[in-house]
Amino acid sequence: MAGFRSLARQVRDPGCDLALRRYSLRKCLEKFAPYGHRATWDHLCSRAGFGPEDRSPDPARLVAALEELEEARDVWLAYETDFTERRRKEKHDGLRRPGSVDDWHRLTWGGFGVAWCDDPRVHPEEPLAEVLRRLIAALEREPGSSCPVCDGERLVWRYGLDHEPSSGPVCADCGILVPRPVLSPRVLQYARRERLLMSA
């Protein structure tokens, strides 16, 4: 099975059939898709200027979408390297019990669904790398009261998400499943209460 880099080479290769280049970009999302496969694809298509169902997009637009994905992947891989080094040091210092960020991180290793969007048409508009930088910054500070990506405060608890965890606080503004460790206990409780009020 081809890795991300070899798939990226195929996307860039003008000698490859256009259908293969598009297919290779889609396959890249099996390796790295911050919003999930369908939402990340929708995001890349809208940012690069071609339709999700366009079977023969402009090759330059395919490469632009790939470049955005690659930049975001570099941001995430750097975070994972730092995370691994921090955990190694903590274990060396005798801290064996992982925290809530570590629990969340195990579910997102490799970058799939780190900013999960259950509705593939509702996702942040900013470049993927910027979204991940904001998310990482939030993971590295004290829990807050708003979405780390768009600063929205309309957080609603949703169940039955097509992701693990299958429930959690979803930002009503940008659509991401907000990682629980970045929100204060009070905000998490409020999001759960909002869910109850909406279903009543």
Please give a structural write-up:
- The protein is mostly helical and 200 residues long.
- Helix content is 50%, strand content 4%.
- It is built from seven helices and two strands, in the order H-H-H-H-H-H-E-E-H.
- It has a two-stranded antiparallel sheet.
- Helix 3 (37-48) crosses helix 4.
- The longest helix has 34 residues, at 59-92.
- The protein is globular.
- The termini are far apart.
Percent of residues in beta strands? under 5%
* Distance between the ends: 48 Å
By secondary-structure content and strand pairing, the structural class works out as mainly alpha
Largest sheet: 2 strands, antiparallel
- SSE order, one letter for each helix or strand: HHHHHHEEH
Number of helices: 7
Mean pLDDT across residues = 90
As residue ranges, the low-confidence spans are: none
- Beta-strand segment tally: 2
Strand order of the largest sheet: 1-2
Portion in helices: 40-55%
Q: Over all CA atoms, what is the radius of gyration?
A: 18 Å
Label the overall shape: globular
Walk me through the topology:
Blueprint: H1 4-12, H2 18-28, H3 37-48, H4 59-92, H5 100-107, H6 128-139, E1 155-158, E2 168-171, H7 185-199
Antiparallel strand pairs: 1-2
Helix pairs in contact: 1-2, 2-4, 3-4, 4-6
